[in-house]
Structures are given as C-alpha cells and as structure tokens.
C-alpha cells in the first residue's frame, strides 16, 4: 500500500479507496455524512446568471439502497470468516447476521450491510487516539449505533449528539423531524480532545453574575479569596480582615495588593474582600450533546445548491474538538466538501473521497474559490490518459453520465439538466457562460461524445442547436479522433468576434480527450463566468500556507 497522500481527492467507491490507498492507523479524525436511506433522489440546483435558481438540476445521488447480488456478496463477506479472513470482528458478523434475521433482506438491511463493511475499514485506518463521527438521521441511527458498538466496542461510545437542523417542520401525522444525529466513537481509551464551550444560559447569568461594574458595565460574580489549606505565607491580616475561622488566604499579600490595584477586588459590607470574576473572561459552559446554535439558512452565502450540504460551523466544531493542527481528517462521503474546507481552514491535512465526478468537480471548484493558493487539487482515480477515459465511458448504464460529467470538468463547463435535458437537446450536455458587450450573458454550448465512432452529422447537430439557441460558440468534445469531414464542417461555422477582446474565435471547436489531458484548452472570450456557484474566500489559520500537499 502506498504512503498516504493528503490534501487530495479520490474518485471512486470509498470501500475500494480505503482498501487500496489508506494505510492502517494513519487517520486522526473521520467524519462521514453518508446517504441516510431516506428513499429520495437529491439534485444539485445550479443558479442562473442573475443568481436565481435555474432549471438546470442534476441528480447528485439517489439516496435509496436496494438488496441485490452485490449486497448479498458483501453480506457473505461480513458473516463468513473464510471470506473476510479475520478482517471482520466476530461481534460484527453476529450482529449483521442477527439483523438480517430480524428485519429481512430489504432496503434498510442493504444500507446497513453497505455501511458496516465501510465502517470496519474506517476503524482500521483510525489512529489509536482517533475519533469517528457518523452523521445520520433517526431513520437508521439506532441500527447504526448497534453496528458501531460491535466494531468499536460499547465502551468506546462517547456521545449521541442531536443537531437541530431546522427550526420547525410540518410532518403529517407525526411530530416534526427537525434534527440529525451524530454518533461519536473513539478507537481507544485515550483520544485527542479539545473542550468546546457554548454560551451560558440567560437565567444562569442572571443568577450567578448579578453584579455590574459601574465603570465598564461588565457583569461579574464575587469569588472567595480564602482557601481550606495553607499554601505559603497566607496567614496575615489584610485591610483589617483575617480569613474565616479554619481557613487561610488563597494568595500572598503581594498578590492581594496587585489584584486590588488592578481593580479585581472589592469589599463586602462586612469588610471581607472578594474577587471580581468577570463574565466575559469565562470560556462558557462545556458544550453539551444537543446543538441548536448552528444552522445553514436558505439565504446563507455558504449555500452552493448541493443537496444535504452541512454548515461549515458544524464541521469546524467537530474538527476543533477532536483533532489538532497538522492532524489528518478523512471524509469518505465528502459531497461538496464542507469537511475539507473546514479542515483546510483550521490547519489540518485532509483526504476526501466521492463516487461521482459531479461531486468531485463541485469540490475542486469550492476548494479553489475558498483557498486560491491551493490551485487545482489533485484527483486520484480520474482518467489521466485515453485508455482510462475509455474504461470510464464503458461503465454500466447506471453510470452513463459519469464520463460526461468528467469530460465537462476538463473544459470547466456546467452540466445541463432539468428541462433542457429531458427533450431533444441536440446533443448538448453542458454550457459555459461569458459576459459580452454591455453585460449581455452569452452561452458556449458543449457536446460530449464517448461513441466509438463519431461522424460529421454530430457536428451538424451542434451547429443547428447553436443557431436555434442563438449561441455564439460551441465545443465538441470527443473521446475518439474526429474525421476530416468533421473538421471541415466545424470550420464552415465561421468565427465569432468578441468586441471586448477585439478577437475572433472559431464558432465550433473540436477538442479530443487526449488533447485536453495533454493540457490543451478551448479558446474562449475573456469574461467567462464561474461554472459552479462560487464559495467565499476563507481566511486560513496562521501558518496554513506551510501545509501544501503531502
């Protein structure tokens, strides 16, 4: 197994990536936010040029799990020692076998089987001091906790955290479901832990910090300046007072005088001195297991249109509590990359895995927007040469869009969905937008072909669609080499004159996958707009510029 590379993305099934790329005991913190088995399909919602939601919705993932031959094989691996060869604890085999008997071979059981085999691997890659946070919802959290108890041991359970995700939901014939669950486990008895604090509740403040400093307006409480046991020269008279009977001053006379000079001591009506403990100097109350103070609101600038996106503050809290600067954070279901952004911001190294090229493209764009110094993040597992691209194109029909999404990412094009993909789209798979004279928004239409044979008719289709859509430019991206008639047809489309750049561009450009992998880029006007909704630039932690790629 190769040495672990950090600050990289992996494309592929996280089970395969974990087994082939992630060594034993190398990860400090795992956060995973897998599909919840909610029986829903989730879409990425793009924004149009005015910032409104557009009809370009692409299915990001189908949050439905089904029992089939693949799950049956995984179940056999988990429950048969001859297959897993001791890599799965007996407790896990017993639990999974019992659960199947109890609830049957259904969608829920398929979800649990697929999650269990991955959780076994995630336990393997954790350091002895490492922690795992599994983000789920009440649909399956009770089953997942049993599975985690079997993998980590019941004694390694730390918390079940309830995160209030919505202010309220109107669910028919049930109480509103407005929270998610975070199951927090440690690999060993000693863990990395940095206590996090929340604000004091109002009634606690009113009761315990009753006094207000007249000069500053700061709230404070009175603290005792005596101690039960002596510790040095602490038996003396001070300002006419001695400690209560059987007690001693908690500080030396010199320290008492200094605190008085600093305005930290006042006197009761009896003359007894007390210490002024200011509210704004206290860290707060140690964080509890119900989190209602973090929300990703509909109008938040964080929102990228990605389904199930989580707030950065949520991940920052988890990463700060359970890791230290320089530690390695792994997110095996990283979606739009919130955990990676939070890790980079907090001076941690990170590894992200996702099984869709669309998610990888969204993540790379987000990381680049948030941290320009990172440049283009390396993606391991995506094709780097033509034969690999052909293998991607030959995947099963269920993954037929993966090649298309990957190819579109090579030219920084936005995939098309919604209305424009349902009808006769003329072979248009993506678009690039740019600003023309007077701020007019124009489109570059992109057609992607993975066919074993391409022909001149495909170029004509693109030309016809450009005319219908009044698009000034078109890109024809092909896995195979174009024929001479195709090149001639593209040339006959003429040129587009961009007044801002005072330059002509070929109206139809044919680009092969080989050319794109070799670094060639399309000729486009100057003011090309971002492919995905831009993330805000993030202020990195001090010293972050030293991290780089590992």
Short note summarizing the structure:
The protein is of the alpha/beta class and 550 residues long. Helices cover 30% and strands 24% of the residues.
Spans where pLDDT lies below 50 across 5 or more residues = 38-63, 418-425, 543-550
Shape type: globular
Number of structural domains: 3
CATH architecture of the largest domain: 3-Layer(aba) Sandwich
The whole-number mean of residue pLDDT values reads 88
N- to C-terminal separation?
16 Å
Could you give a short account of the major beta sheet? Answer: 9 strands, mixed
Number of helices: 17
Say how many strands there are: 26
Radius of gyration, in angstroms, nearest whole number = 30 Å
Q: Which CATH class of the largest domain applies here? A: Alpha Beta
At the fold tier of CATH, the topology name of the largest domain is Rossmann fold
Helix content: 25-40%
- In spatial order, strands of the major sheet run 16-6-7-5-2-17-18-1-19
Description of the structure:
With 550 residues, this protein is of the alpha/beta class. The chain folds into three domains: 8-196 and 287-380, 3-Layer(aba) Sandwich (Rossmann fold); 202-281, no CATH class; 413-517, Dna-directed Rna Polymerases I, Ii, And Iii 27 Kd Polypeptide, Chain: A, domain 1. The chain contains 17 helices and 26 strands. The strands form seven sheets. The protein has a nine-stranded mixed β-sheet. A hairpin with a 4-residue loop joins strand 24 and strand 25. Helix 2 (69-79) crosses helix 5 (107-125).
């Amino acid at each position: 197994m190769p040495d672990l590379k950090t600050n990289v993305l992996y494309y592929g099934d996280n089970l395969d990536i974990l087994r082939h790329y992630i060594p034993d005991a190398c990860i400090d913190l795992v956060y995973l936010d897998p599909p919840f088995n909610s029986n829903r399909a989730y879409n990425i919602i793009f924004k149009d040029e005015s910032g409104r939601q557009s009809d370009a919705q692409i299915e990001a993932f189908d949050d439905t799990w089904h029992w089939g031959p693949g799950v049956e094989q995984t179940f056999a691996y988990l429950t048969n020692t001859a297959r897993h060869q001791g890599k799965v604890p007996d407790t896990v085999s017993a639990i999974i076998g019992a659960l199947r008997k109890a609830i049957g071979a259904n969608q829920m059981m398929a979800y649990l089987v697929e999650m269990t085999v991955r959780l076994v691997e995630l336990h393997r890659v954790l350091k002895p001091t490492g922690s795992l946070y599994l983000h789920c919802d009440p649909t399956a959290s009770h089953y997942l906790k049993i599975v985690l108890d079997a993998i980590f041991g019941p004694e390694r359970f730390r918390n079940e955290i309830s995160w209030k995700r919505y202010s309220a939901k109107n669910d028919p014939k049930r109480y509103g479901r407005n929270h998610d669950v975070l199951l927090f486990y440690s690999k060993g008895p000693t863990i990395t832990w940095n206590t996090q604090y929340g604000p004091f509740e109002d009634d606690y403040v009113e009761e315990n910090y009753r006094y207000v400093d007249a000069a500053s307006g700061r709230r404070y409480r009175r603290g005792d300046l005596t101690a039960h046991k002596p510790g040095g020269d602490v038996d003396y008279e001070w300002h006419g007072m001695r400690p209560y009977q059987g007690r001693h001053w908690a500080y030396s006379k010199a320290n008492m005088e200094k605190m008085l000079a600093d305005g930290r001591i006042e006197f009761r009506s009896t003359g007894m001195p007390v210490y002024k403990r200011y509210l704004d100097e206290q860290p707060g109350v140690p964080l509890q297991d119900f989190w209602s103070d973090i929300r990703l609101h509909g109008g938040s600038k964080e929102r990228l249109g990605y389904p199930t996106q989580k707030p950065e503050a949520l991940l920052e809290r988890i990463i700060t509590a359970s890791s230290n600067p320089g530690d390695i954070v792994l997110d095996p279901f990283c979606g739009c990359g919130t955990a990676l952004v939070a890790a980079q911001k907090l001076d941690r190294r990170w590894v992200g895995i996702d099984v869709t090229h669309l998610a990888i493209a969204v993540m790379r764009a987000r990381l680049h927007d948030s941290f320009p110094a990172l440049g283009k993040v390396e993606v391991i597992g995506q094709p780097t040469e033509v034969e690999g691209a052909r293998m991607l194109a030959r995947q099963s029909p269920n993954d037929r869009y993966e090649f298309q999404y990957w190819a579109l990412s090579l030219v920084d094009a936005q995939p098309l969905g919604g209305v424009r993909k349902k009808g006769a789209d003329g072979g248009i798979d993506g678009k690039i937008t740019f600003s023309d004279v007077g701020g007019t928004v124009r489109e570059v239409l992109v057609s992607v072909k993975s066919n074993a044979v391409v022909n001149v008719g495909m170029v004509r289709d693109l030309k016809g669609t450009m005319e219908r859509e009044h698009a000034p430019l078109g890109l024809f991206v092909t896995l195979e080499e174009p024929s001479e008639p195709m090149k001639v047809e593209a040339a006959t489309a003429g040129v587009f004159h961009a007044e801002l750049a005072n330059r002509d561009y070929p109206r139809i450009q044919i680009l092969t996958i080989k050319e794109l992998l070799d670094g060639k880029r399309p000729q486009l006007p100057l003011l090309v707009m971002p492919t995905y909704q831009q993330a805000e630039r993030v202020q990195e932690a001090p010293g972050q510029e030293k991290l780089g790629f590992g």
